[in-house]
Amino acid sequence: MSRGSAASVFLGVDVGTGSARAGLFDENGKLLGSASSPIQIWKEKDCIEQSSTDIWHAVCAAVKSACSLANVAPEDVAGLGFAATCSLVAVDADGSPVSVSLSGDTRRNIIVWMDHRAVNQAERINATNSPVLQYCGGGVSPEMQAPKLLWMKENLLDSWSMVCRWMDLSDWLAYRATGDDTRSLCTTVCKWTYLGHAHMKQWKESDSRDMEACGWDNVFWEEIGLGDLLEGNCAKIGRSVAFPGHALGSGLTPTAAKELGLLPGTPVGTSLIDAHAGGVGVMESIPDAGSKAVSDEHAICHRMVLVCGTSTCHMAVSKDRLFIPGVWGPFWSAMIPEFWLTEGGQSATGALLDYIIENHVASPLLSNHAASQSISIFELLNKMLLSMSQEQNSPFLSALTQDTHVLPDFHGNRSPVPDPKSKGVIYGLTLDTSEKHLALLYLATIQGIAYGTRHIVEHCNAHGHKIDTLLACGGLAKNSLYIQEHADITGCPIILPRESESVLLGAAVLGAVAGKKFPGVRDAMKALNAAGKVVNPSSDPKVKKYHDAKYQIFRSLYEQQLSHRATMAQALQ
């Protein structure tokens, strides 16, 4: 059914770690329908890989299902945008996959964002002290692309010589859809050490066009042993860049349109990394119209978005260039054009909660109880904690964990102490194997994650930010206990978006801008973002006192780890 020429529908596609999702939104940012399709993943120790062929099939399936569920005809889709994890894709001159796997499996042509094979390469790159490193918190993470590229050259030389294009996954999706390999300022600046501010004086978002890539630091690439990537005006890593939302090529190619069930020529916007799309999907979600009326140019600079999924990204913007040790950025125009982006993060949050629950002996029993009540494990745990709090006459629910403390660095620490070697700590274990013990461990882990967020917020504010409000989106934002603990621990109100699919909405914003329905990304955000519930921190001073004490213990757990690490290193000399 067509909605008629008057109404426009915007399509957002997001490829996460485990699935490809698609969502359709109307001109008020209301979700009309969404669908997902699973994607394959291979894990062998530190090596985590995917297939671009498999992902494209999943994207096509999700888009067709979403259009069917939303009852949207191809001619109603006014524009489309892609978001994806910052995984690294390798293709040859024909666009065919080139293996990035020690197994030699040609399907496996993507190094997944969370892959940590390149820890050694990251350390060597950081030892150069190149000036570009000041724009990623003082050093690259093994989750960024330069270390992964260096690993490929050092370990898979045959594949290295075959690759014609190295691309961030979201850029590859846009390239697969349009045939235009212009890269996004989001991906290149955040993950490839591209200096986006090289364009600051020349271009504004309103100029919207492909810009010749003048932000690569040639000395850096030569210094780390990857000078060959500079050949042909950096053709393999990006000859041209554009602001997020810039319309690519001539829109969908006939082939891609047929595969997606859409019309050839449908506008496609330059892409975003998935977390950054989450930021675009929520950052203008102000609770009431009155607030919007008085919001000034700088109001947005008081907000931080938590994109809470497998991992959590902490996104804040500023008009000024703020260098913050241990926190990625400042990245110019990497999320909202013409604003500097600061990006903190925790490498394992949703993944850590899953790990804690699934590896506890009471987990199968808990799963059965949740299934019998037709609720999620998280909902059951939250109910149990409420009951336990009442049974034990606890002054407040959070106080149940007074003897249990968690340092959540089970996949290293991304920020504000960039230490991929940091390990997780659980303090206060007993022989208890009950469901109630699992509930306590779950609560203590949520608190540990929230103390990590408090550490990031305090660190950013100590270096020039003025963050006083949080906005949360992603799967974990649907967990009421998770959000309330974050509000209590940070002392900030947390705004939840009206629409639960914020990353898809952020991707759809790119399509709306590419389709010329709005002059720019922030205009589209103001029209399409909408606030839902606001969760305020507890007003009980005892709750604050309790969390302040636990926060000091949280901070000490890492300091103790450093001391223990040094002691053992000395013992092994």
From TrEMBL:
SUPFAM superfamilies linked: Actin-like ATPase domain
Keyword Magnesium carried by entry: no
Pfam families associated with the record: FGGY_C, FGGY_N
Transmembrane segments: none
GO BP terms: carbohydrate metabolic process
Gene3D superfamilies (alphabetical): 1.20.58.2240, 3.30.420.40
Signal peptide (from-to): none
Key words, A-Z: Kinase, Transferase
Single Gene Ontology MF annotation: kinase activity
Domain Carbohydrate kinase FGGY N-terminal, first and last residues per copy: 10-281
Entries under InterPro entries matching the protein: ATPase_NBD, Carb_kinase_FGGY, FGGY_C, FGGY_N, FGGY_RbtK-like
Chain ranges of the Carbohydrate kinase FGGY C-terminal domain: 305-514
Protein family per UniProt: Belongs to the FGGY kinase family.
NCBIfam families per UniProt: 5C_CHO_kinase
Name listed for the protein in its UniProt record: FGGY carbohydrate kinase domain-containing protein
Organism: Zea mays (Maize)
Gene: LOC100382878
